[in-house]
Amino acid sequence: MVRPPCCDKEGVKKGPWTPEEDLVLVSYIQEHGPGNWRAVPTRTGLMRCSKSCRLRWTNYLRPGIKRGNFTDQEEKLIVHLQALLGNRWAAIASYLPERTDNDIKNFWNTHLKRKLQGGGDGGEGDGGAASKPSTQRLASSSKGQWERQLQTDIDMARRALREALTSIHDVKPLPDAAGAAGSLSGAAADSPASSSSGASQCSPSASGYVLTTANISRMLDGWARKGGRPSSGPATPVPAESASASASSEASEVSYGVSATLPVLTSPFEYETKPSVTAPDQTQLSAIESWLFADVDGVDHHLQGGSLLDAAMDYTF
DNA sequence: AACTGTGACAACCGCTCTGCT
DNA sequence: GAGCAGAGCGGTTGTCACAGT
């Protein structure tokens, strides 16, 4: 079937977003909430396709997302989740509520893949079995084979994750790890079987993302400071230090410098919800640990009683 | 100082999935 | 059940910044 283009190519702007466009989009979403992306370009007058608007929002403008500076915990988690889930970045991102799938994907492609390739025996990384349980490999298989491969992948990943958890437990849990652990429920609900709901990035009620004004503040702060390269404004505007600095101040102050001209941004998002990053719940961790360690004593549940899904479903955070 | 190579990241593209009619 | 539209996902590309020569 010939698929029509996702959007009318005529008159649709492409390339980096300008601060003005960001503002328009943010203002619109602040007013109407994310969703109904089809209507966004027409209602806002943005010369962008709906897809582009959604991506811009989810990958950059959405409040509560953290950029750059992946912690060791996050790195480990990503590595092991990648082994567990394959290249399903949205699913992986659901374990890291402050990170976008695009961010994680980029981080994987630019840092971790190389790292694993370099550190491993060459079998790791992209070509390694652990790193490619992905659809490509699975797609070519029949359903039975698919399930077997999936189980193999799960077994392998389970061991890897077990090791990771063990090492993480040796270290004092950091907020990031806490967030990751605390958000397991989202991922559980978003288990491979229901990946279409993805990271539930756009649904305020579902994701409960950390909607603060901090991101907007950061964004505007960046613009105010440079005002130079348009789309780089918010896009690359937050150097490591300032990012962490503003993150630490979180929603406390809203000093944009240009806020006077932006009255629409003075109030928090109406659908602002509680932070999705919660303290690690020991019982939750122990639940997954019990699953992870299930085969240590020779009991391998595979996909019967002790499937990953079952274990995941046991999580009710 | 100019040029080149490389890394990082934002954005696009095409496909799949889901919900609605 | 079929067809369609919208939304989401993963792979890939384009662009910019910076380091090295």
Question: Can you walk through the features of this model?
Answer:
- This protein is mainly alpha-helical and 317 residues long.
- Helix content is 52%, strand content 0%.
- Helix 4 packs antiparallel against helix 8, helix 5 packs across helix 6 and helix 12 packs across helix 14.
- The longest helix has 28 residues.
- The relative contact order is 0.13.
- The N terminus and C terminus are likely disordered.
- The structure holds a DNA duplex (21 and 21 nucleotides).
Q: Into which percentage range does the β-strand content fall?
A: under 5%
- Radius of gyration using CA atoms only: 21 Å
Q: What's the helix count? A: 16
Which structural class should the secondary elements be placed in?
A: mainly alpha
The largest β sheet comes out as: none
What's the short story on this structure?
This protein is mainly α and 317 residues long. The chain has helices at 19-32, 39-44, 50-61, 72-85, 89-95, 101-119, 135-139, 143-170, 175-182, 184-189, 204-207, 214-225, 232-235, 240-249, 282-292, 308-313. The structure holds a DNA duplex (21 and 21 nucleotides).
Q: Helices and strands in order, then pairings?
A:
Layout: H1 19-32, H2 39-44, H3 50-61, H4 72-85, H5 89-95, H6 101-119, H7 135-139, H8 143-170, H9 175-182, H10 184-189, H11 204-207, H12 214-225, H13 232-235, H14 240-249, H15 282-292, H16 308-313
Helix pairs in contact: 4-8, 5-6, 12-14
The protein binds a DNA duplex (21 and 21 nucleotides) through residues 3, 5-6, 14-17, 35-38, 49-52, 54-56, 58-60, 67-68, 87-91, 101-103, 105-107, 109-111, 114, 134-135, 195-199, 201-202, 229, 231-232, 235-236.
